[in-house]
Amino acid sequence: MDEKINIREIFQKLTSRWYYFLFCLLITVPLAYLYIRFADTIYQVRASILLTQQMKNGMANEKFLKGMELLTSHTELEDEIGILKSFNLVGSTLQKLDFGISYFEKNNLKTYEKYNDGCPFRIMLDSTIHQIINVPIYIKRTSPGTYTVIASAKNVSTYNFYTNQLEGVLPAVEITQIQAEEKPFVSKNLSFKIVFDKRYNFDGEKVYFFILHDLGSLTEIYREKLDIKAISRESNIVEINIRGRNPKKDILFLNTLLEVYLANELNKRNQLGLKTIRFIDDQLSGVSNELKQAEGSLESFRSRNNILNINATAENLTKTLDRLETDRSALELKLKYYKYIEGALDKADLKNIQTPSTFGLEDPLLNDLLLELEKLTQERIGLNYSTKDTNPVIKVLDLKIANHKRALIENVSNFIQASTNALADLNRKISEIQHNVNELPRSERELVNIQRKFDFNDNVYNYLLEKRAEAGIAIASNTNEKTIVDKAQQVGGGPVSPNKKMIMILAFVSGLGMALALIVLKDLVHDRIITTEDIEKSTRIPTIGTIVHGTKRDKSLGIVVNGKSVLAECFRSLRVNLEYLTLGKEKSVIGITSSIMSEGKTFCSSNLAVSMAQAGRKTILIDADMRRPQVAKTFNLKSERGLSNYLIDACSLEDITISTDTKGLDIITSGPIPPNPLDLIGLPKMDQLIEDLKRIYDIIIIDTPPLGPVSEYVILMKYTRANICVVRSNHTSRNHLEKINKLFDEKKINNVSVLLNDVRMSINGYSHYAYK
């Protein structure tokens, strides 16, 4: 049948071992306090930014300027997070800050990081020498005019702060030097000037030091500290968290990081517009010179020939020729642009390609191909920050770019061929009209040529000026899509680590858990019998009584039933219980044994014998444990003659019977220890002894050897009417009861009971009373 869990028993067992919990709590709670006291105080700083993917230029769905669509870009949220945490961006941010030197204060074994006004001195490095880095350099003010520099470390790197490059490694650094305050400190690999705060005093409890950092390692430190994640799966707002010992530095770092990121983004968006303006400026320079030359030639010709008007024929021819040459100029410009596109594609220079609308060309197909190619190229650049080249997404994107380039090259080749044919046709028509013009008078013909050249250059110049103005307006109206939602600020209202409340709760729970684990482990490893409930779980043999743990005075007396203590009352209760076990027989033989030594067998048998005699029953106690006799010692008797002498017919019963101070109680000691106790117990003389004693005494108590190591008790059981196995609390293992359990199961022993000895009164609520 399954055993039911006894909650009350478990609770009583735990409360009885309260000292386990106290001991463990005295370990965990002070350790938690020490951790809270000396652990670094960590603060959390948070900022948020909107990384939108929408294109916004303030003109709804229409572009204010043709070609303005290339000033926008599409990037994935994960790529932008990768850019925010990239080495280049974090490094650029740190270059704008003065984080290369960290200042610290050590007070009572705890270190605090200081920034700005928190440290009583400032360091100005000498960038002309290679400085040691990542080494604590202690500054101690020795007098109002001097200070001491102390540094000690092994395998120290040196760094050039001017070039931001590591220079070498020193096997060891040992610096202890006193320096005047007004002079710079100079050594082989450390040089700086120090400026002390006038409020700095000689506080012996506080120690100050600083550490120099190289840009690379400092960048990696801040990259590891950054925690960037979207606030939800569907949102484009990301939170940027950073934890550190100085919230002022972290707030400044996050705000600067966002400023540098937004500035880079806006600069990247304006690059195409700036390249367009530079291209137009180059064209304007050439057209302006040609326009000035044409204007000078026209003015000189009119002044020299006094010609103001041209006849109608010349005017018509000129208009026609101007129109054709304008068409040819536009066609040449288009052909020039197509060849420019062809050359850029051959050189794979996709970043500098200008749109057709920039040159006033309306070509939707070509414009769409360029926009799609630019979009794919921007996506490819964005993926470079967070994805390796072996990624399948990169390969698919590279294939798309190659296909669009191939389609673009084919279209551009067709456009070049068509434009070349159209230009040849225009040249033929212009040649015919020029032939007609040549028939005009020389002066009129010369004026027509000069006027036509001037008008052409003037039209081209005005056109380029218009396009440059449009590109400038596009750049000026361009805004950053990404905006800061919340600037950096400290969160939590204080330190986030260590969490004092949580640590103390964990320490308390850990202490309780440790104590509980120790109790369970002890019960598993030390399977000793403690209470009567443990006996009931280990054997089906009934329990006849319980003997409580005695005091030192009880132990010194040996015989305790003469007093009025709780221990004496236990033996009186045992005497009463034995009346039921022996069924009230006037003549009874009681055998007392144990599973192993040192369980209190002799102590119990001696006090039980005294208790029986005090109850008016004539009692004799036989010490049959001839291997380790203890009865004579308990009653302060000499054991010169005893049971061993009687069994070998060396003396009579009267010779070995000893009277005691207790009325009605006699004792037979074991006598000299024989070499063969087992053989003596089995002699017929033992039968005669028991029969003789039954005629004289009411109660015969036999103190026998333990059951475990020897077998005398198995022989003596044929004489006993009641058998008591003494089990000592917190001493006897459950395994020690196996032999008596086997005898009981095989019905080789009857009327057997277990007596639990040496039970602590606090265990399982045991309590007794004593007469006063």
Explained architecture:
By secondary structure, the chain is α/β, with parallel strands linked by helices. Helices cover 48% and strands 19% of the residues. It has 22 helices and 22 strands. The chain has an eight-stranded mixed β-sheet with strand order 15-22-21-16-20-17-19-18, sandwiched between helices. Strands 2, 3, 5, 6, 7, 8 and 11 form a seven-stranded antiparallel β-sheet that branches. A four-stranded antiparallel β-sheet has the order 12-13-1-14. It starts with 6 loop residues before the first helix and ends in a 13-residue tail after the last strand. The model is unreliable at 54-74 and 763-772 (pLDDT under 50).
Rg for CA atoms: 54 Å
Annotation, overall tally of beta strands: 22
Quaternary class: single chain
Point out poorly predicted stretches.
54-74, 763-772
Coarse structural class: alpha/beta
Share of β-strand residues:
15-25%
Key words describing this protein structure:
48% helix; alpha/beta; 22 strands; single chain; elongated; 22 helices; 7-stranded antiparallel sheet
Give the SSE layout.
Elements: H1 7-16, H2 18-38, E1 43-50, H3 77-84, H4 87-95, E2 101-107, E3 110-114, E4 121-125, E5 131-132, E6 137-143, E7 146-160, E8 165-180, E9 185-187, E10 190-196, E11 206-212, H5 215-225, E12 227-230, E13 237-244, H6 247-305, H7 312-346, H8 364-383, H9 392-437, H10 442-477, E14 483-491, H11 500-525, H12 532-538, E15 543-548, H13 552-557, H14 566-581, E16 588-594, H15 601-614, E17 619-623, H16 631-634, H17 643-647, H18 653-656, E18 657-659, E19 665-668, H19 677-681, H20 684-696, E20 699-703, H21 712-716, E21 722-728, H22 738-745, E22 752-759
Helix pairs in contact: 2-11, 4-5, 4-6, 6-10, 7-9, 7-10, 8-9, 14-15
